[in-house]
Write a structure and sequence with these properties.
Blueprint: H1 7-19, E1 26-31, H2 43-63, E2 67-73, H3 83-97, E3 101-105, H4 112-124, E4 135-139, E5 160-163, H5 168-175, H6 191-205, E6 210-218
Parallel strand pairs: 1-2, 3-4
Antiparallel strand pairs: 4-6, 5-6
Helix pairs in contact: 1-5, 2-5, 3-4, 5-6
Length: 220
């Protein structure tokens, strides 16, 4: 469950591709991802939203996702929407799909939409009777989580690592669909930096490439 188009790939694209090999993967993107850059209602913003949605669908197909849901919360202005409304959008998807595990943003992030997404997901997946979600994981977003420089609390402290040496190239292929979001090295969203990040986390746990997550809750 991601805030913007491309967050789902940046945060856990290789893990989703690995999971999709033997189970259903569903993606929810809450925001339209463009209106903070252009005048609201302009032809430019409409075109960019359409491009981002097309990229999201193409990326989901590359990853092997069963479905992708694209919502339209205002970019970098999730804080203008009542939190309850965001929670209800997520609850509706959970009721439809009933996922056992959810991956979403980490709260210690410079992007307000990422922080609100985490809070809304945490609320929507609270462990009440009949709750389908048994595991909740938080991911990092390159160029957003680390740019908090550990000044935002809590800082990202991964404790779950997924070996993605067989799917890291799928992640990079999916990210390549987002032409307007990709950057040249040494930007953190460049292909080289994304591959290096996976190799760095892999070296931490003794594998070639890994994606890192913070386990928020697990019921077993």
């Amino acid at each position: 469950m991601a805030a913007h188009p491309d967050d789902e790939v940046l945060g856990c694209g290789a893990t989703l591709a690995k999971l999709a090999a033997d189970q259903e993967v569903h993606i929810l993107i809450l925001g339209e991802g463009a209106t903070s850059r252009y005048a609201s209602g302009s032809a430019a913003v409409q075109g960019e939203v359409a491009r981002l949605q097309a990229a999201a669908r193409a990326g989901a197909a590359i990853i092997g996702a069963q479905s992708i849901t694209l919502d339209s919360l205002p970019d970098n202005r999730f804080d203008t929407v009542p939190l309850l409304d965001v929670v209800r959008r997520i609850e509706q998807i959970i009721q439809q799909i009933r996922p056992a595990a959810v991956y979403t943003h980490h709260p210690g992030d410079i992007n307000i939409d990422h922080r609100i997404t985490f809070q809304a997901v945490l609320t929507a997946t609270r462990p009440v009777p009949q709750q389908a979600v048994q595991e909740l994981y938080a991911f990092e977003i390159p160029s957003s989580t680390e740019w908090g420089f550990q000044q935002l609390q809590p800082s990202f402290k991964p404790n779950v690592f997924v070996d993605v040496h067989t799917t890291i190239e799928i992640k990079l292929k999916a990210m390549a669909q987002y032409e307007s979001e990709s950057r040249a090295f040494p930007h953190p969203r460049s292909p080289e930096a994304l591959r290096n990040l996976a190799r760095r986390w892999g070296s931490v746990v003794g594998v070639e490439c890994a994606e890192a997550f913070e386990l928020i809750r697990s019921i077993r």
